[in-house]
Amino acid sequence: MITTSRIQSLFTNGILEIILALLCVVLAVTASGFLTAENLLNVLRNVSMQGVIAFGMTMVIISGEIDLSVGSAVAFSACLTAFFTLKFSAEWVSLPIALAIAIAILFSLIIGFFLGVFTGFMRTRYQVPSFITTLALMTGLSGAAELITNGFPLTPFPNWYNFIGGGYLVGIPFPALLFLLTFVILQFLMNYTAFGRSVYAVGGNAEAARLSGINVSRVKMMVLGITSLLAALSGIMVSSEIMSGTATTAKGWELDVIAAVIIGGTSLMGGVGRIWGTMVGVVFLGVLMNGMTLLNVSEYWQHVVRGVIILVAVLLNLLQKEKRRG
Amino acid sequence: MSTPAHSLQTRSLRKEYPGTVALDDVSVSFTGGKIHALIGKNGAGKSTLVKIISGATQPTRGSILVDGLEVSLPSPRHALERGIVAVHQELSLVPELTVAENILLGRLPKKHGLRNSVIDWRSVFLRAGQVLDDLGVYLDVHEKAGTLGIAQQQVVEIAKAMSYEPSILILDEPTSALAQHETERLFDVLKKLKTRGVVLLYITHRLQELHEIADTVTVLRNGALVGTIGIDQATPAAIVQMMFGEVVQRSRPVDLIAPTEPFVEVRSLSRTGSFDDVNFTVNKGEVLGIAGLLGSGRTELLRAIFGADPPDSGELIIAGQHIRPTSPEQMKELGIAMTPENRKDQGLVQLLSTSVNLCLSSLHRIASHGFLTRTREERLVEKNVRELDIKVNRTDAPVAFLSGGNQQKVVIGKWLNTNPRLVLLDEPTRGIDVQAKQQMFQIIWDMSKRGISCIVVSSELEELLDICHRILIMRAGRIVSEVRPSEISLENLFAACMKEEV
Q1: Domain count, chain A
Q2: Structural domain includes residue A68
Q3: Which residues from A are below 8 Å from B331, CB to CB?
């Protein structure tokens, strides 16, 4: 009896994990080169730059908001990092390149954070939906990235800078380590802190949270700020990978990121979701893309399959919830 | 007078909701050409009866007869087709549409041809104008409903109802938003309808209106029919007796402390449109009641003290400190808690578990340096469940699964975990069963003994008499007097709340 109910609960709570495991088994058999350490680390590296944002996006969606600007924020942050590096190492002052890069990274992260806080401020102070503010930021930041680069990639970086987006530490891609680190921090934040609990409460019922003495505005501003900060981090990783600040990178990432979050079981209605679910969602999409590439599936088909996966995942989640309720 | 009078009858209507019986074996009949007042306290079953008659909800048992024939009313649309129309207290006009469109909403006259899909605007305005003329009111049918005053909107609602040419018209507190002269005009309209043999059901809280308008008075109490009397028999004493029944004074605990040390002083607190210049003091460990009708400003006052809807002016004095409430977060820090009237939507996050809800207000108290420790949480939750006697199978399951009484205990537990010094309770016993009510009283008295002050707002006046040290009477946004339960009878307390401002 105990074992059957345990298996049942595994099915209801871990259906995505099971599907992911099945997918891996199928690919291990059919796609040569899938089950190698090199390929798996490669998958991890490929998902890491969108993945760090996905964890933040999970918090945003749980809190009942949305952030459509993350793709543009990545491009903006990449360009901003290159821009400041150029300015601090040559044009405004001639600081040592390492120091210029450090300052540039710091500025990009801070500016990123406050862009998110701005969205939260507009939401809580003026009741502008985050959908609208981030839609405006999506266009605005993309334009700003073009402006500061004059439409051409900025390339002020020395070779060693490639480490952040392309290097290895103890045999693991460095961006993958940043991805795992972000996961651990946000997993902890959402599950073991007063702040994380407030995020669920605010998304579940903002008015009840406010009447419980929770500062709803602060929670929303923080959540959006953290996500925007993670987009800036992602932008720094991207600038390092391609060794330039290019305004046209990361186009449409917001949708990939939101897709991963939703596949991971987070409800767009707010109040429900897990960081771990997003981890599985991100890896699932990564493995799927990688497998299809190895199997020589055309890129067009990959898009179609991804669209189908998103729908099926949401449908499965909803059906499961219904079953648990009934 | 040529139209034959209609009639409405119910037979053994019963309505059960999970955990409660809202309507119990109600058999009553209403004849056309008369105005039948339907009265009772909040939760007596008036609105349930109206909902069943207008098809908005289905009875668990029993039947409805219109003009002597049994009807089935699976939806409001079916009720409309039977000529049953209800005008609800909350206005349901579309503000952006004209008066005429609102009156004929969903039934706009169409031009012939073109598959009858083109609106015939001329006859829209003509017909709406006719309906208004019939009622003897003048309103511009081209005006947008949203620009009208509340009273005029109410008239449009009634016109809309009349455009269905109902045989049974139900009016749910139609005068609650009206001024005296508007009420009189409405009464003229109703008297006119009487002559057409329409069955008029009139729900009201204003007992002084009864003699002006009603022919019979039907009283419900706790979901059961108490009886129907003619208006000539309806003395105030008789009505109160019917509404409240034999009042049993519950024995209070003998060891209740007599609080004398002031804790919070409320000074000339005002909020435009809600309440004005409110002054009172709550003593340490005191249970202070606020009695007043719906709309007297009692809920708004509690919310203002808690900072949920901050006051426009005035202040609180707490232990010598002058404080202007601005947010619940701030007031929580000062030791003030509130259990809101609407506990389902405002008191709890239904999606989250019982234990998470219990810890929601005290997250920073439980956490050390912002980090939650499961053992500490569990210990607290376990203590709440034990001390408040919360009936819960799994504290990690959504709180939505709990009954009303247990949910209320969770809300109180959530605040007890903050070590409050003053708890504001808005309708703490609404929708919970008798046993849970008794437990709620005990919880309030226990808090009082521990030196926690309580301000209780309740429509159940007899409850206030039972549990409070002192009762403030609130009317039209002002505190008009202060009484002690031992010095006032239920009838007089009720009368004090009812008295109209002149």
Answers
A1: 1
A2: yes
A3: 213
